[in-house]
Amino acid sequence: MADDGGEAGGPTRRAGLRTLAAAALAVPLLGALPGSGARQGRVRSAAAVPAVTVMTFNLRFASDKRPNSWAQRRPVMRDLLRAAAPHVMGTQEGVPPQLADIESDLGPHYDRIGTGRGGGDEESMAVFFDTRRLEPVAHEHFWLSDTPRVRGSNTWGAKYPRMVTWVRFRDLAAGGRPFCVLNTHLDNGSSYARERAAEMIVARLGRFAADLPVLVTGDFNTIAHHSPVYDRLLASGLVDTWDTAARRGPAFATYHAFRGPVPDGDRIDWILASPQVRVERAWVDTYHAGGQYPSDHLPACVSLRVS
Fold it and tell me: How many beta carbons lie within 10 A of that of residue 14, not counting itself?
């Protein structure tokens, strides 16, 4: 199926992934991966497959401004991510040198897929993943505008260009079982742009097979349960993993502006999922050290099983 709304083959960290992006056009967007079970052997029982840990994290772009410069924040970010060890992490606001630092700090078994959003700042919706657990088989980038293939395009009055990076993975611990992650960062200035973006994301989700599990990670710049964006995404059939989790940690606002966690505050960073995803636990990671937080956002995390 041809996709008229993505920039296939956008820049990534490694040449192999650039090649993979081009190959994505030849991989059907609809349906499960043919033969994956045969290549990997029989799918292990659900109880035998370890849960997948997913994180969404607005990294706060790297700057030299103290007291929250990237040089000050990086060691705390490194400690948080190494302890959390997510299998897949959708990030927002990361810039190239910062993303390279994070990949280095995570270690050699992590890789990432992403491209700059354009408009001069080159912030990325990079998706990091643990290569010991997940193998990417297709990915694309598209811009949240009337011209989704045009890098940096912005036609809905957003404060900045906005985009989506999606990656389809094979779960190596589950016989190659496929699932897809869409990662985004909606606009902070225009409610109209956010609502149009939600409509486009829903339309793109409709291009995947109904039985392909999907996760949507992002900073949505609007409050869960109190937003037309939230309502539209859930009306499409997605569920809020915070609400469906069998267990939850304490609730905190996910944006704290370096002032520290706000109990029972508003969630603007979400992990949404298709209904066949079983969420075991959801939590907000509040790790900090010596009064230093790794970002002005707290990462939202889930442990889940994809069926």
Answer: 11
> What does the chain come to in residues?
307
Question: pLDDT digits over 62-86, tens only?
Answer: 999 999 999 999 999 999 999 999 9
**At residue 261, what are phi and psi to the nearest 5 degrees?**
-60, 140
Question: Residue 137's closest CA among 260, 24, 255, 11?
Answer: 24
Dist. CA 192–CA 126, nearest whole Å = 25
Q: What pLDDT digit, counting tens, does each position of 195-246 carry?
A: 999 999 999 999 999 999 999 999 999 999 999 999 999 999 999 999 999 9
- DSSP code of residue 47: G
Between strands 127-130 and 88-92, the pairing is: antiparallel
What's the pLDDT score for residue 119? 73
With CA atoms as reference, report the closest residue to 163 among 175, 173, 149.
149
The answer to whether the beta carbons of residues 89 and 59 sit under 8 Å apart is no
Contact between residue 209 and residue 168 where contact means Cβ atoms under 8 Å apart: no
Closest of 133, 124, 46, 135 to residue 85, by C-alpha: 133
Query: Is 245 strand, coil or helix?
Result: coil
Whether the predicted pLDDT of 175 surpasses 50? yes
Class of residue 202 by CB neighbours under 10 A (exposed 0-12, middle 13-18, buried 19+): middle
**CA–CA gap between residue 134 and residue 236 (Å, rounded):** 27
- pTM for the full model? 0.87
53-306, what's its fold? Deoxyribonuclease I; Chain A (3.60.10)
